[in-house]
Structure prediction request, 460 residues.
Amino acid sequence: MRYDATLKVNGRAYPVAIEPGRNLLSVLRSEVGLTGAKEGCDDSECGACMVLLDGQPVNSCSYLALQADGREIVTIEGLAGEDGDLHPLQQAFLDQGGVQCGFCTPGMLISAKALLDRNPSPDEDEIRLALSGNLCRCTGYSGIVRAVQAVAEQR
Amino acid sequence: MSAQSYTAATSVDEALEAMATGARPIAGGTDLVVGARGGKAPLPDALVAIHRVSELRGIREQEGGLVLGALATHADIVASSSACELFTALADASAIVGSHATRTAGTIGGNVMNASPAMETGGPLICFDAVATLRSASGTRRVALTDLFTGPGRTVAEPGELLTELAIPTPKDGTGSCYARLEYRRQMEIAIVGATAVVTLDGGTVRDARIAITALAPTIHRVAEAEQALNGSDASDAAVHAAADAAAGASRPISDVRGSAQYRRAMAAVLTRRAISTAITRARGGRFPIPASPALHGAVNGGAA
Prediction:
């Protein structure tokens, strides 16, 4: 049986009809049509599917879509401004070499945003610790950490 | 995934009504959904979501202790100054559950009722004499955490019973505590071996010691021989070593992909020693930061107990 729900994603309401067992990631990608959040491990290990739910980071592969009914979701597509200007974190990832293949980047950026929303001026160890739920197989993390540090220093 | 029906409860009574007809509760989903996707256990046929039940939220102080609502998240616990100061081992444990994306969704009620022998908060809750309130459509009962777990993934709770809150009595003055974990990764990790120590000092003498081992037996449990090795002692290195060796001796670990039984037993002594030493340091008023808490939660370090 399918249940009606409304997912508010990046400020826009999306009515969906979904089965109880569907996770938020699959509904975002298949029903809402936003494919920025990625399915990496599908086991809540890698953080590639991370989104903000009512402002808090959540691994969307491990969260039931129906439980997000009526709540505010922010995906990577919601980070840039309406005029298309990149979020400071996105620009810093580009400037500092924080992106290679790009698969981990949506989750990494959401995770970094969640950290800076909570703690605007983290030190390097705090950044590394906060992002250690997000796996990257390309960059060696240095560029990512530099990027978050650069944004933290601007604040 | 096999779930066929779903209802979102807005009160405990609504949740209990659904559970009386066979529905199983889901809160943060960080164990249930992952377990289903990994093929470990399918989702229950009927789900009742309890994340909107406001009466299950929050952490409150009450006469003689602290009450954790079943929906208190690990992030809530680490952000609670009472939890950090009085129940430091519990804050240690909640601070290292999953990643920040797990701690904002994962709840203490779900963590306890999932009953993993490797879960982080069980040892601290047992050592602090926490009591769970289990409610069903037909009544309410209270079960000490030390009596709750019966095996991996199993508790004494009946299918219609919902954990609604955990009450923890305030420890005596002079108490320090610590939960320590062996991990291969800083986040998104489950204990390979874990140890809890809650130590109450009276002058230089150990008046009361609680030691529990995690991921070393089918259930998390206290080790009486380890506690006896510390009780009445002067908290010397020799006493700490004797207690840690007793904890390792009481372990019955399994071998799996994350570690052999032999390795786990060897590490049991190391981790128990660390937990006891840190608990003693904290009981003496020394600072020893809760892992990760300042970075991840903006909370003040819980040093002195």
